[in-house]
Input
Amino acid sequence: MLKVGVLGAGHLGKIHLRLLNESEKYELIGFYDPDEINAKKVAQEFGYTYFENMNILMDSVDVVDIVTPTLSHFECAKKAIEKGKHIFIEKPITNTLEEAEALLELVTKHGVKGQVGHVERFNPAFISVKEKVENPMFIETHRLAEFNPRGTDVPVVLDLMIHDIDVILSVVNSPVKQINASGVSVISSSPDIANARIEFENGCVANLTSSRISLKNMRKSRFFQKDAYISVDFLEKKVEVVKMKDAPENPGDFDMILQNAEGVRKQIYFENPDIHANNAILDELETYADAINNNTTPIVSLEQGTNALRVALQIIESFKQ
Output
């Protein structure tokens, strides 16, 4: 079992603490939080060991799980890596691209592994169809959330949209060519609503919309590719796969047939992939343990987390143009 310590005991940190405590792949050594009152309350309520000194906690573990505010990600990760510890770091990887690139150099120098907490990669609905998403040429995403003061210290792009950026980059095998975006600050000092159009060199176009002042929650992505349409509802854990193939010469009474102006006939059919319920956060933590134990590349590497941050920051920069 890998010895693990958690930095940060806020809303998400407490979830990580509970899951790591339950996991058979980790031994939870304890946690550190600079808010002593909150830390002692968490320790008393749940029985986790509270370390008053972050360095002592890091020295006691194999893996440091960083669930702190984004502004402190780099310093926490740098300190852990320099102590030879593997790091799991919540998204976004860091506050700046320079910090993320510095971490990439540090993990290589010290021979440790890192994973970024882009949890939607472990969403059971997305897992069920990921292999079916092949060379999509148009992608549309909507990630809408009801207002929550937690997270408004960063633009909605880094708070919400970055989830969809990471998913898109994981299925589009092409460099980004151009980005156009707009953002509006409604309640916060940073944009609360954003729309971005990402054009890739292979011709794929992705249109992303995110809002954190919506009247309802929505997390949907749609992928359009040759002879297929794939819809993923990350919130409801549902998928819809519609495919087309050459129509048979003698279709059945209930076959759905379309014919275009050139006379080409296609048959529409539906696929229903099996969706296996899971705990996505537990899965991302445990597959990271597997990557460490088996010396393989984590599912969401620091490089991928850096790429998602790079695109997110380009979108934010596009607001100013």
Remarks:
- DSSP finds nine helices and 14 strands in the chain.
- The mean pLDDT is 93.
- Residues 121-278+310-318 form a domain with the Dihydrodipicolinate Reductase; domain 2 fold (CATH 3.30.360.10).
- The longest strand covers residues 176-184.
